[in-house]
Amino acid sequence: MLVPLLVSLVVSLAVLYLSGEKVVHHGRRLAARLGVSSFFFGLLVVAVGTSLPEIVVGLVSALEGEPHVVVGDILGSNVADVLLLVGVYSLLGPWVLRKDVVSSVVASLSFAGVAFVYALLRGELSMLDAVVLIGLFFLFIRSRLPESEMDRASESTSAEDLIVFLLALVGLVISAHTSVKSVVLLSEALSLPVFVVSVLTLALGTSLPELSVGLNAIRRGEPHIAMGDAIGSVVVNTTLGLGLPAFLTKLPVFLWEERFTILLLLLSLFLFTYYVNYYRRLDRRLGFLLLSLYVIFVVGVLL
User: Which residues in the chain belong to E strands, given as ranges?
Assistant: First the structure.
């Protein structure tokens, strides 16, 4: 029983790594052909692809009448994107951020914060709120895409790059799901405590696709793709991740049992936005701060 699970885990992680490498390599070439920056490409295109697990989980949970699962998954994913992913990238730095990237990070996180506060103020999301959130996502795309880049986006792209990029995204999502499932089954087979399984599932399930892309991007000297993916995922999760399931069922957003996660997420968005805007870099000091907050988050969830 253990050997097949170990083989499955190793194969899944290998596919995950290779898929992340292909996403970065061909994504960078597509960005160059489209005439957009690597940060912009990561912010929108890669972020949507790596956020597919959260979106799919949200839609399935809504159809099965489990709206609390939708909200919990989105909150946990956003916390992991800001604290865990960016924390790891910062430790591998320092990375000096371009002025345009800093302004995009600040605008994106501010946008995500406004969308999330809107959802909190509504309390329970209806179909009308779903339209508003999805509309905010497309408004965000339009605001981040200058006219000059929109004109250049009409240029022809390599069919091979596009096909490999899309296939790599599919491989990324499937291998991440398989890896998480293998870890859970392996933990149960080894009779590990339930809380250990929960922490592993939380960390892997919300972060593997983005983390794989991010680490491959940094290895290739493209920290802006890693940043764009992590920050873009927060925007995608907050707008599409909450908006699409709200089309199917009413979503109670402000749950009393999630108050700790909600407050930590808002604090994380504020601290990270302030730090990047003031220091214009990712460094080890920021990395230790973000990862420390993530440890507090995990402990708080378990208690």
Answer: 95-96, 124-125, 251-252, 281-282
36 Ramachandran zone, left/alpha/beta (phi>0; psi -120 to 50): beta
**CA neighbor of 38 nearest in space, from 213, 280, 226:** 226
pLDDT digits (tens, 9 = 90+) for 207-248: 777 787 788 888 878 788 888 888 888 888 888 888 888 888
Query: Within 13 Å of residue 269, how many CA atoms lie on the same side as its CB?
Result: 25
Cis peptide before 94 (omega within 30 of 0): yes
Domains and CATH numbers, the chain: 39-157+195-302 (1.20.1420.30)
pTM, full prediction: 0.76
* CB-based contact 259:58 (threshold 8 Å): no
* Distances 259 to 22, 254, 265 between C-alpha atoms, Å: 39, 8, 10
Q: Quick one: tokens of 157?
A: 């792209």
